[in-house]
Amino acid sequence: xxxxxxxPFDVKINPLQQYNTDDGAKLARMSIDKQFHGELEAASQGxxxxxxxxxxGSAGYVxxxxxxxTLHGRSGGFTLQHNATMTRGAPALNIIVVPDSxxxxxxxxxxxxxxxxxxxxxxxxFEYRLPQPA
Length: 134
Fold this sequence. Notes:
The protein is an all-beta fold. The protein has a single domain, classed as AOC barrel-like, CATH 2.40.350.10. Helices cover 0% and strands 69% of the residues. 15% of the residues are buried.
């Protein structure tokens, strides 16, 4: 059975030391710290790699973040994998639960998450599935 979780989250992104420092690379590396609220009460930490271009509004990023807390009252952790592009201002975002990354009461979790940014505030829409208890 598919279930949805919604709510706001706070995020802090800070630069980390880059590996490729070539001026033409336009690469960046950042830490991610989030606090989820609502139906997902959790904290996450992760890392993001991004690439910019010479074309305004075109870029991409990948990220991995480990989430720990409670999802609709079930405690545990899981890992999210991000893949996103912006093509001349048109966004494409894919965030999935890494297979078999769920722990505790979230073991077997699968799903995908969407991030919504409106009026400078962040929220999530998380569609997920958990195995039915035996």
